[in-house]
Amino acid sequence: MAAPNPSTAPTFGHSLRRQFLFPENYTNLNHGSFGAIPAAVLSHRQKLHILSEQHPDNFMRYHSISLLDESRSAVAKVLNAPSEEVVFVTNATTGVNIVLRNLIYEEGDVILHFGTIYGACGRTVQYIADTTPATCISIPLAYPVSDASILSSFNTTVQEIKAAGKKPKLVIFDTVSSMPGMRFPWEKMIVAAKEADVLSLIDGAHGIGNIKIDLTANQPDFFVSNCHKWLYTPRPAAILYVPLRNQALITTSVPTSHYYIPKSAAQYWSPLSPGTKSNFILQFEFNGTIDATPYLCVPAALKFRQDIGGEDAIIKYCNTLAFEGGETVAKILGTEIMAPDPAAVDGGRCPMVNIRLPLLPVPKTEVEPVYNTFTKEVGIRENTFVQVYVHNARWWVRISAQVYLEMKDFVWIAGVLKKECEKINERIKSLATIAVVTGERVDVVNGADVHVEEVRSAKKVVNGMGDLKVSETEGETVTVKG
């Protein structure tokens, strides 16, 4: 692929908005969830749809297969992986399911993951634990934390499992976690897993197009990544990487389809020719009738990325905008960003940034309304979307940087968030009147839970309404003055 020409490449920022499909009044600050495609990629997909309807059989049986091979080769180059080790699946969750459901588990096997695992993947691990002899262990992870601490917690957990006479079979971890949107030391974790004789499954949902990935250099045992999030392909599209050394472990696609090889001698006639490709490639080449055009748009998406500056320039712009934009939002809100480990790869930066929201402790009964306020009410009213969540007993907002955004977008959303937080805090103040100390916790009658030591060190964290007397006597009533 030719190098980008700086003299003809568009300038990053609002000048690139016209290349995408957003209405003039919409500001997309949540690219990380579902991605967004350029108009040029949509046009390419529409042409593929027309071809598939003009000659359905020719397209589905022959033409689409050759196009799929081209897409696999194209995406493999970005990952620096052999094309025979890469296949397409619908999304990262599907890829994780394929790996976990193919492995054979024995009594004493343990699957490890971290506390920041993506919800659907965590449920999949739990399903495996519910239906096989394997058990699972979640390693606590609360940011801010150093990469060294993460690796240490993994190694300690592995030692404890082995000391108990069990086998740590597999560990699943992220390239960049979802919430919080933090870069994970996945490269170092692969090494640590190998040294511990543990299989590594990397959930790279936020991977390709988001950070630099070199699978040949890092050699994970299994790797999945969404193309529709950060690579500008249509939804749904993801890759599953399985090196040749592990392909015998993946005996079936999900769902099982034409190219599954039964263990018995049973034979099933198939109109599909096996050709010269490996069974691993064939299993995912035709996996039932689906709309595979998102997979076939990878070359068009990569061409667009090259035309606007190339992979390195895109990642650099988004990383810088996320970090500097996040710092700006935090300053306006009077809080801070969730700081990455400065010793990490690229300083721990990625195109997503997490900023603490200046909210009082939210009562249990108000958690869902507060979440809906930010995601639905503010989203609809302001023509945007931001992802909010609770981590380590604090409310955070995750903002995605992208080539069509500028610093002024971060300044704008900071103002929106500040006003909304002020309104929510006023509502919380009107609810809190009495707190009861029970052991190590202070339970406010409206449902908020706050650690006693936290109350001592920062009274405003409890209610922001004035003096608060804290007693260690269990069951004693504490009046919150408003």
TrEMBL record:
Gene3D superfamilies: Type I PLP-dependent aspartate aminotransferase-like (Major domain). Keywords: Pyridoxal phosphate. SUPFAM superfamilies: PLP-dependent transferases. Pfam families: Aminotran_5. It comes from the Eukaryota. Residues 64-343 form the Aminotransferase class V domain. This is Aminotransferase class V domain-containing protein. It comes from Arthrobotrys conoides.
